[in-house]
TrEMBL record:
Superkingdom per UniProt: Bacteria
One Pfam family from the record: PDEase_II
SUPFAM superfamilies: GAF domain-like, HD-domain/PDEase-like, Metallo-hydrolase/oxidoreductase
Domain HD: 195-319
Alphabetized InterPro entries for the sequence: Cyclic_di-GMP/3'3'-cGAMP_PDE (IPR052020), GAF (IPR003018), GAF-like_dom_sf (IPR029016), HD/PDEase_dom (IPR003607), HD_domain (IPR006674), HD_GYP_dom (IPR037522), Metallo-B-lactamas (IPR001279), Pdiesterase2 (IPR000396)
Gene Ontology molecular function: any one: 3',5'-cyclic-AMP phosphodiesterase activity
Biological process per Gene Ontology, one example term: cAMP catabolic process
Gene3D superfamilies found in the cross-reference section: 3.30.450.40, Hypothetical protein af1432 (1.10.3210.10), Ribonuclease Z/Hydroxyacylglutathione hydrolase-like (3.60.15.10)
Species whose genome carries this gene: Sulfurimonas gotlandica (strain DSM 19862 / JCM 16533 / GD1)
Protein name as annotated: Protein containing GAF and HD domain
Domain HD-GYP: 173-370
């Protein structure tokens, strides 16, 4: 059999549906568990797989069928599987005999030698744990499981959970088939940073519109079950394109647009009505009423009603939902677009039916809110946090350079604003620069270039006199980039760009509750760090520096400083380069940090060069003293409240 790690997206999908077909012919609960175990083993190239089920009444876990062992019942918290079930955590272990949770008794009885293990808990629709997948002894050369195996087992776990619930409650395998289709649709969305609830909402919107259009209840239900597969083709799109945070270039857009044909090709040959409907949805949900869609430029009623309905449902949900990379449109803006696109993008009859059934559609949206939307609210409630837009010391694939979002209109440095905020960057009014190096200023140009027509206020650049001078002379000089300070915004009579020189050790008020104060840092050009204060609590951000003497004095003297962000760019094996470029290594950093008298400070580390990330992370662990550091990543949050982290 082909090794699981070498399987492509189409082959994985084919394997899932092979097991789906086998399950569909079964009624016995034990037989179903056995097939699911076979699927888990095949997807992860494991030697053995066991599907465990929770017995809530007896507080036990049990399996009646497992590879190579007889039926077993254990207390719910027993061993590694019990730990996964009681904590809800996924577990990968390279050698179970080094883990205190492992019970070697079964190995002793059977003569089998367990080495590597991976356990994934299974959740039902109410997020209750109903069991776990356990795979043992990877068949690969190293015999170890990794994150790729975990992703495949999570896929098996999702399917298995829905199958077991369905079999236990109704023994109707048709329901299981529907859940697999939904799960596969959710996987396509999750790879592109969508959420599972997106496909749930699109499914419900599609059913409502289908009934309103005049479909029989059975057909509307079929469309509901098929519509989650609309973007299944995304599983075959490379991550570099699918997960790109910014806009696609022309070539990337061409690749991305192939997902409709890819999805159709994956499932078009099935003779099951559900998958036949899903194939239509995948193929035609990007076609437009006016013939300007893709992939076949179908027009009007040439587009199957399934495609027309799913297109409307998908666009409505995409525009109206917050994502980690964009803010939701407000309803009035969406409704205005729909009215404009009536007879253009969308079937005019469906647009009318959409507004006639708007109350039901909005009720669905409310019921299936995204869980992460609540987390966004939590971030707003915690007033002692700021967001890291970029955390690294140079730009590379998946790594953004330095930028700190203080509030909606103020950032420190401009290294990675556009990739994380996108259109929301039009609200940035003030960029407080630490110094003039490119990795800290680059997105100033792109904010103005990309969103010039949307901006209504001048973008003000604040920095030390030497920093402002360098920008004017070497960057916004009509040679490297246009001098936007001479250009008036199209939506107002104000200049696109302005400059403000700041002074060291002077406190600048941002609003009633927030202020910013610059302090001198030790770098190769004029540079400063900042102390950001909000409601009496502060975070100190060094930016690029070599010496920390004045920083340590401030930390010990100012009790309002609860968190510090310090750079660490190079490994300790490069002290000469660090000294000449005025950066820190882990050894140099902690040699200075150990001088801090306080032990109530949160230490965050940023500006690591991505090529040295693993090495520096190990050295940070090796050299750290009383302060346990947190290595920042793009889009992390810095907490600077007095309360301890939980």
């Amino acid at each position: 059999m082909k090794h699981a790690r070498s399987l492509g997206a189409n082959e994985i999908l084919q394997m899932i549906f092979t097991y789906l077909t086998e399950v569909s012919s079964l009624r016995a609960y034990n037989d179903i568990i056995m097939v699911l175990a076979n699927m888990g083993r095949a997807l992860t190239s494991a030697d053995r797989c066991t599907v465990w089920v929770v017995d809530e009444e007896k507080q036990e876990i049990w399996t009646k069928v497992a590879h190579g062992i007889d039926a077993i019942r254990l207390p719910i918290d027993s061993g590694i599987v019990g730990s996964s079930i009681t904590t809800g955590k996924k577990i990968i272990i390279d050698d179970v005999y080094l883990d205190d949770r492992f019970n070697p008794d079964i190995d002793k009885k059977t003569g089998y030698r367990t080495k590597s293990m991976m356990v994934i808990p299974m959740f039902d629709n109410d997020d209750e744990i109903i069991g776990a997948f356990q795979v043992i002894n990877h068949k690969g050369e190293k015999g170890l499981f990794d994150t790729r195996d975990m992703e495949r087992l999570m896929l098996a776990s999702t399917y298995a959970a829905e199958t077991l619930v369905s079999a236990r409650l109704t023994n109707e395998i048709e329901d299981t088939q529907k859940e697999v289709v939904f799960t596969m649709g959710a996987i396509g969305e999750s790879r592109s940073k969508e959420t599972g609830n997106h496909v749930k909402r699109v499914a419900e919107y599609s059913r409502i519109l289908g009934l309103a259009y005049g479909m029989e209840a059975k057909e509307a239900e079929l469309l509901k079950q098929a519509s989650p597969m609309h973007d299944i083709g995304k599983v075959a799109i490379p991550d570099a394109i699918l997960k790109k945070p910014g806009r696609f270039n022309d070539e990337e857009r061409k690749v991305m647009d192939t997902h409709a044909e890819l999805g159709f090709g994956m499932i078009k040959n099935s003779d099951r009505p559900l998958l036949q409907a899903a194939a239509i949805v995948a193929y035609e949900h990007h076609e437009k009423w006016n013939g300007n869609g893709y992939p076949r430029k179908l027009k009007g009623e040439e587009i199957h009603i399934y495609g027309r309905i799913t297109a409307l449902a998908d666009v409505f949900d995409a525009l109206g939902s917050d994502r980690v990379y964009k803010k939701a449109w407000d309803d009035e803006r969406i409704f205005k677009l729909f009215k404009e696109e009536r007879g253009e993008h969308f079937d005019p009859k469906l647009i009318d039916l959409f507004f006639e059934n708007l109350e039901d559609i909005l009720a669905v949206r409310e019921h299936f809110k995204d869980a992460y939307e609540e987390k966004v609210v939590d971030k707003e409630v915690n007033t002692k946090e700021i967001k890291i837009l970029g955390a690294y010391g140079t730009r590379a694939k998946g790594f953004g350079t330095s930028s700190f979002l203080l509030n909606k209109s103020n950032v420190i440095d401009a290294g990675n604003i556009l990739a994380t905020l996108d259109e929301e960057s039009i609200h940035i009014e003030n960029i407080w620069l630490t110094h003039s190096h490119l990795d800290h200023i680059s997105d100033i140009a792109y904010i103005l270039d990309n969103y010039f027509s949307l901006r209504t206020k001048t973008l003000n650049i604040l920095g030390l006199p030497g920093t402002i001078k360098a920008l004017k002379k070497h960057f916004f000089n009509d040679l490297i980039w246009p001098d936007f300070s001479k250009i008036t915004l199209s939506k107002s009579d104000t200049p696109a760009l302005s400059y403000t020189e700041i002074e060291l050790d002077k406190e600048y008020s941002l609003n009633e509750d927030e202020s910013l104060e610059a302090f001198k840092t030790d770098h190769t050009v004029p540079s400063c760090g900042y102390i950001f204060k909000r409601e009496g609590d502060s975070v100190l951000i060094t930016a690029d520096t070599y010496s920390l003497d004045n920083v340590i004095e401030m930390i010990d003297a100012r009790k309002d400083i609860n968190s510090i962000v310090i750079e660490c760019s190079f490994p300790s094996s490069m002290p000469i380069l660090a000294k000449e470029s005025k950066h820190l290594t882990p050894q140099l950093l902690f040699k200075s940090i150990d001088k801090i008298k306080r032990d109530d400070i949160r230490l965050y580390i940023n500006h690591i060069k991505p090529s040295f990330l693993d090495k520096i992370a190990k050295e940070i662990h090796e050299y750290m003293g009383k302060l346990e550091p947190i290595i920042l990543k793009d889009e992390d949050f810095i907490n600077f409240s007095k309360k301890p982290l939980t």
